[in-house]
Amino acid sequence: MSRSLTYEAPDATGKSAAHTDTYHGHFARLVPDELVVEVLAFEAVDPALGGTMTLTTTLTDAEGGGTDVLMVHEGIPDAVPAADNETGTRMALENLARFVETGREV
Which pairing describes strands 2-6 and 20-31: parallel, antiparallel, or unpaired? Predict the structure, then answer.
């Protein structure tokens, strides 16, 4: 699979293009309604941004209804600022929320 996150903020920079992070990967483990483990790598010219990362997403029932989502990133390249990783994760979760709430992809 290949996916991209596009940053709308004019001062945001991407690893694959001026305002875009593109990555590819595969699902290493899927447990329905509980766990998703993805193995990912950025598409980037800079070798400091290369390497394989693992993203583990755990889903649990939230108290009072809904679902708690815990995302753990492992193997993020040192050249990727923590703030950039947090922004990308937040964007992905916002897109997921919109999809769940509306049934439409963003």
Answer: antiparallel
